[in-house]
Amino acid sequence: MKVILASASERRQELLVRLCKNFDIMVSDFDEEKVIFQNSIDEYVQNIALGKAINIKEKVKDNAIIIAADTIVTLDDKILGKPKNEEDAFNMIKLLQGRSHKVYSGVVVINTKKDLILKDSVATEVVFSQMNDDEIREYIKTREPLDKAGAYGIQGIGGIFVKEIRGCYYNVVGLPLNKLKIMLEKVI
């Protein structure tokens, strides 16, 4: 059966290759703003991923396995999305430096033939080292933080600022592989 990744994320595409050699990419145009946060970060990321997956399901004619994910960064239960600009990235990193925060990913897998939908989430704790303002500005100059939730990429240059993680590394990258593997085994 055809596998479809509902994501334009190059990181998710690179990771999915480890579980599935052949898959198609369809970018969801689901409006994430439609999902209202209701005090559960796990439910919030799952519902955004579900919206992306259903959006693709409605466009697919053949039977398929659809995989969708959403990743957010939280600090003190406040959601840090993608920065709007360099100043926003600076402020986010300044908040994170020297502290612990959590990265949540919601994952949804749909088997259209069986009309089966699984959704789950993973949380990973990340601890940043102390950083001075010059280090933050130099990192922002790389442009890496500008398209990432929480304004950093653990798999890139941002990884040098990560003091430790507790949980799934791949979750922080954007696709918790072990969780996805278990979910795929259940739907196929």
UniProtKB/TrEMBL annotation:
Q: Superkingdom of the source?
A: Bacteria
Cofactor(s) required for function per UniProt: a divalent metal cation
According to UniProt, residues marked as the site described as Important for substrate specificity are 11, 71, 155
GO terms, molecular function = dTTP diphosphatase activity; UTP diphosphatase activity
Name the EC number(s). 3.6.1.9
Has keyword Cytoplasm? yes
Q: Which residues form the active site?
A: 70
What is its EC class? hydrolase
**Which subcellular locations apply to this protein?**
Cytoplasm
For this UniProt record, give its keywords in alphabetical order, as a comma-separated list. Cytoplasm, Hydrolase, Nucleotide metabolism
Return the GO cellular component terms, semicolon-separated.
Answer: cytoplasm
Q: Which reaction does it catalyse?
A: dTTP + H2O = dTMP + diphosphate + H(+); UTP + H2O = UMP + diphosphate + H(+)
Question: A GO biological process this protein is involved in?
Answer: nucleotide metabolic process
InterPro entries for this protein:
ITPase-like_fam, Maf-like
Described by its record, this protein's role is as follows: Nucleoside triphosphate pyrophosphatase that hydrolyzes dTTP and UTP. May have a dual role in cell division arrest and in preventing the incorporation of modified nucleotides into cellular nucleic acids.
Q: Could you tell me which PANTHER family the record lists for this protein?
A: BIFUNCTIONAL DTTP/UTP PYROPHOSPHATASE/METHYLTRANSFERASE PROTEIN-RELATED, BIFUNCTIONAL DTTP_UTP PYROPHOSPHATASE_METHYLTRANSFERASE PROTEIN-RELATED
Q: Which NCBIfam families match?
A: maf, PRK00078.1
User: What family name appears in the similarity comment?
Assistant: Belongs to the Maf family. YhdE subfamily.
Question: What name does UniProt use for this protein?
Answer: dTTP/UTP pyrophosphatase
